[in-house]
Each structure stands twice: as structure tokens, then as C-alpha cells.
Amino acid sequence: MVQTGDGIRSPRARQRALLIAAGPDEPELSELAELLRTAGVAAAGQLTQRRERPDPDRYLGKGKLDELKTAIGESDANLVAVDDELLPRQERNLEQALGVPVIDRTAVILDIFADHASSAEGKLQVELAQLEYNLARMRGLWTHLERLGAGIGTRGPGESQIETDRRLARDRIAALRRRLEATKGTRATMRRERERAGLPTVALAGYTNTGKSTLLNALTGAEVGVRDRLFHTLDPTTRSFEVGGRAFLLTDTVGFIRKLPHQLVEAFAATLEEALEADLLVHVADASVPEEELVEMLDAVEQVLVEIDVAERPRLLALNKVDRLDAEARRALSFRFPDAVQVSAEMGEGLEELRAALEARFLATLRPIDLLLPYAEGGRLSELHELAGEVEREDTPEGVRVKARVPAAAVPRFERFSSNGAGGHEV
């Protein structure tokens, strides 16, 4: 099927891509078009082919390839974008047959990440992913050597240059991995400091552009940059907020997407560890999209969570952007997702219900403690207030009698102040 894209052309875009896809079901290319828009490329049209699997050499069948050549000329496209990750030989054969550059979905996403990365760690992660992606395609960078023709003095230097380039790339990959391992150690130190404080941690996870950063701002009063574009947030942002007098830490993580390149999942492992270590995951979803699309997005996020080993982490589903729905659509969502909280981060709707749901999840995990704190241990009392929020206290001649509920990980810190037990100091 061929479609022109006149309705979504950008007059300022110098690159105009014809979008293509092949698969057993009718491919849907709106997400690829949005990725290209984010990368500054206009969509000139699209062509799809229903087949069991893409052709291993040219992605499309021969007849559809001829149709694609015609469509490129008719749409005035100067680029072809494929909604899958191409094998190196598929990319080379397509470019030779079509006479225009060919990029795949992974290349588009990597380009967006490279443009949006701002922190030193984020830039390292993107460079690592790009190098690993390009390593298998490096031979194509040296095709200009073929112009020398076969014979003495041509094959040797060309092959030597390719191998030299690959070796340099592998060395750079190893260096990047070492530097990222060092940043992982720094992040682990920061995480231990947070654990020492005993504050409950919540991570926002979800599809890209579902409003996670807007929700972070709404809950914490922060002013994290928000834009209507895919993958605007790459680096984790952590802010604190209070619920029921207790402080929580809330972290916004990188957004997921359907068919997220494995290079990025691996490279951003350090960032995704924020989700791995959180006490609770809030899965933020865009409730304003059609239900079929919503389910696909939820499934895509679940697949990534499985890939990074957090599928069993406690979670709460927050259906965002409900301000765009009427009452009937909201009721339908409540029946479809009865355990979800419906919110509008932009309008401030449903935030109290979300805070209550977060508090309920954590209250169920708290441990009761009964302490007798000497008056000389005033610092311990302040620490307990930070951990427990509300506490029940009574001044006695021996010290301050305190009853509270604290996270299980913090209980050992106060064992020696227990009001009963061996020596009078055991929880």
C-alpha cells in the first residue's frame, strides 16, 4: 500500500523520508513518522507490504521494491526510513537498488538520543550505543576504496583500513564501558546515601511522551523541562515530595517505546537502575489514545521492564491526560483498569488520589516500633520524624517514649532504643 504524506510535511525539513514497513499484519507507521518529526525529518509518504517476514536481502520483495522506486520519484523523497532494524546487507542492497540513503528505526532513535543527551553520562551512553550499532556496518564506510579497482595494492590497504577502524571502535567501546562503570559506582554511592536516609523511593516509568516529567513537576513542585516530543527526558531526575507528613523521593526515567533498540537498553542500564532499585514503580500511560494503542504501549513498557529484570517490582498504574476524555470514556477506563489511578498532571486533576494510593502502598510495608529515646538523643528523634512522618510521643522521666511506623530497612538503626526486650533496647 502506498500513501503520500502531504498532510504532515514540514516546509523547513531538508530531508523528506518515504516510510516503509513489512510484516504479517498491516504495518502502522504513525510512530515512525513521529520519530522522524522529532529528528527533524518530514514524512513524504509511506509504503507497506504484508508478508510473513521481511526479505533477508532487500527487506521488501522484488515487485514491491520496484513500486518503492516509483513512489520515491512521485513523492520527491530523498531518504527511505524503515520501521525495523535492518541487517547491514539489507541496508546496503536497498541503497544500491534505490539510489537514496536508507535509515532504519534504530538509527532514527539513536539520532534523537544523540540530540537530546545533555549530561556527560547520557552522552557517553549514546556514543556507546551508536558505536555498537555501527560496528557491524563499518565495511560500508569504506566502499570508496572499490573505485581503485581490483589488483595489487588495492585489496590489502582497504581491508587493513577496515580492520584498523574496527579495532579503534572496539577500543573506544571498551573505554566507554569503563567510564560508565565508574559513573555506575558514583550512582551506587548516591543510592546508598538515600537508603541511609530511609526515604521511600518511587520511579516513574512508561512510554515516551506520556507526561512523566509533567507529573513529576505536579507532584513535587519542580520545574523540570517539558516538551511535546519523544525522548525529551534521557537523564534521571530525582525530586522529593511529602505525603501524609512523610518524605518520598520521586525519579523520572527515560521513556520506553515499541521495539526499543537493545543497544539503548544496554547502554542506559545505569539510568534504568533507578527503576530497578525503586520501592515502587508508577507506570504512567497516556489515557487519551485509542484503547488498542494504549494496550500496545502498556505491553511495550512491560517488555522493557522484563528485559531489565523489574517485572516483579511493585507498581501502580497512573492513567494520565484524562482531561482529554469525556465522562463515558473515563468510566470505560475504570472498568478496563480498575486498579489504576486516573490523573491529569497538566490540569492537577487526580493528584490527591495518586498521593493517597502511593501512601497506601507504603503504609502496608511499614514496621511498627516502640522506642524509649534518652533526652540526649534528640538527633535520633529528628531522624525518626523524617522517616516516619507522624509519630506518637510521650515525655517520661527516663526519656521520650515514641511509637511510629518506619520502613523495614530502617528498623535496625533503632534496635538499641526499643522500650522492651533484652537490656531494654531491642525492637
Task: Outline the structure in words.
It is a single chain. This protein is of the alpha/beta class and 427 residues long. The chain folds into 4 domains: 2-111, Rossmann fold, CATH 3.40.50; 117-180; 199-363, P-loop containing nucleotide triphosphate hydrolases (Rossmann fold); 366-424, Alpha-Beta Plaits. The protein is 42% helix and 19% strand. The chain has 13 helices and 14 strands. Strands 7-8-6-9-10-11 form a 6-stranded mixed sheet, sandwiched between helices. Helix 4 runs antiparallel to helix 5 (120-135) and helix 5 runs antiparallel to helix 6.
Structural class: alpha/beta
Number of domains: 4
- Rg is 27 Å
End-to-end distance: 70 Å
Order of helices and strands: EEHEHEHEHHHEHEEHHEHEHEHEHEE
Rough outline = elongated
- CATH fourth-tier homologous superfamily of the largest domain: P-loop containing nucleotide triphosphate hydrolases
How would you sum up the major sheet? 6 strands, mixed
Strand order in the largest sheet: 7-8-6-9-10-11
**How helical, in percent, are the residues?**
40-55%
Low-confidence regions:
1-12, 140-157, 421-427
The DSSP helix count reads 13
CATH topology of the largest domain: Rossmann fold
Oligomerization: single chain
Total strands: 14
Compact summary:
The chain is of the alpha/beta class and 427 residues long. The chain is built from 13 helices and 14 strands.
